[in-house]
Amino acid sequence: MPGRMVQRIDVTGADGVRLAAWEFADPPKRREETQRASGVLLLHGLMGRASHWAATARWLSERHRAIALDQRGHGRSDKPPEGPFTREAYVADAEAAIEQLGLAPVTLIGHSMGALTAWQLAAKRPDLVRALVICDMRASALGAASQREWADWFRAWPVPFATLADVRKWFGEDDPWVERPTPARGEFFAEVMAESADGWRPVFSRRQMLTSRATWVHDAHWEELAQVQCPTLVIRGLDGELGRAEAQEMVRVLPRGQYAEVDAGHLAHYDQPEAWRAAIEPFLDGVLTP
User: Fold this and answer.
1) 280 is in which domain, residue-wise?
2) pLDDT tens digit sequence for 77-97
3) What is the 3 state secondary structure string of the chain?
């Protein structure tokens, strides 16, 4: 949108890790108005970054204080060589961001791993969280085989990529590990590449991504889901990773759960931004209207 600005705000996460947060706002909006607006924190998934939320954050910022966070190991945030990349660290980082940015009671919108962080934080600190949107994240365990497949997939990346066009083509057309690659997927991965002396490489460490994933992929997360007391929308892409039966069971387990679908893949908010908005905006209007 013309005139819409993005401001970087650094946050101190757990263990002193520096986190980059990005606030979307209109230039004419006075700071006192921004501070009074209801807070929304957007949490990307594994390998994502705050910029993947740009389309969502821009329309949210018309009425709310919308901030997207680069989580540890991702984007412009610190990538400590030895982590930690535990569930506790990610949850503590989000908790610190909410408190330091004055967002509470916040609406958390999370995709994939970011959705898990969101509901674990809501279970831990119900005083901080007003509502949740959970996008395409399973509550059941995925198991060791899934982790081995991801390790194999990472090794298959033809890094470094010579050009960004090569990035878009490989992830959007040629990736043999994905049944139906899409152009949007190619664009998604182009956003997480940086140019180096020998070509384009991911801004994250694939080793760190596997370490992070290992802290949640082997376990089920139903118990924490059941502890979430705030209104929660469970949303899935029809061709995503969360099946309809499991999504509906998640809604049943949640004390105040609702359900929605988007005709998209796993990257629903990025792949089909207008359909994504149509699916979540009625829920947000209901929980955020004074």
Assistant:
1) 5-140+220-288
2) 999 999 999 999 999 999 999
3) CCCCEEEEEEEECHHHCEEEEEEEECCCCCHHHHHHCCEEEEECCCCCCHHHHHHHHHHHCCCCEEEEEECCCCCCCCCCCCCCCCHHHHHHHHHHHHHHHCCCCEEEEEECHHHHHHHHHHHHCCCCEEEEEEECCCCCCCCHHHHHHHHHHHHHCCCCECCHHHHHHHHHHHCCCCCCCCHHHHHHHHCCEEEECCEEEECCCHHHHHHHHHCCCCCCCHHHHHCCCCCEEEEEEEECCCCHHHHHHHHHHCCCEEEEEEEEECCHHHHCHHHHHHHHHHHHHHHHCC
